[in-house]
Fold:
Amino acid sequence: MTSNIKDRTKFDFSQLKWIIDTAGGGVAQFAPKVGMTEKRLQDCLDNISEFDMWEIRCIYEALPIPSCLFDAYFFTELKEANVGGAAFDYSRLKGRIKEKYATQEAFAKALGISNALLSNKLNSVADFTQREITKVCKLLEIPHEYVCAYFYVLPAVSR
Structure:
């Protein structure tokens, strides 16, 4: 199902891309597992084509995606004003840092980055890289299945 990209909603598949790379072995290895060609999967992830519902179901069943995060993986709209990255709620991550390292400064040192850069990342001014997420999880003893609960939590909407 394809349509003019200018006439349809674009989705942010960054979380889905990340889990396909980490848990699915990458696009080339993962695509056949869900009955898709590598090109078709990549086109969908790049918003050139749209996933159909069967493909979404197959991907969901093949990856360790918690049901509570299904919408975040498949239906988060890409915000044109926020092309540089999404604002996430890192309060749970901040709590874990305090629990394991007492201070943000001590954790930044263990992570190998400046406290200012860590502060920017925790305040969604700068994005965490995949390598940093992996290292953070090791340092804070965050199991793989809880990565989303620490790194991909959207802020609550005020009413």
Q: What stands out?
A: The longest helix spans residues 91-101.
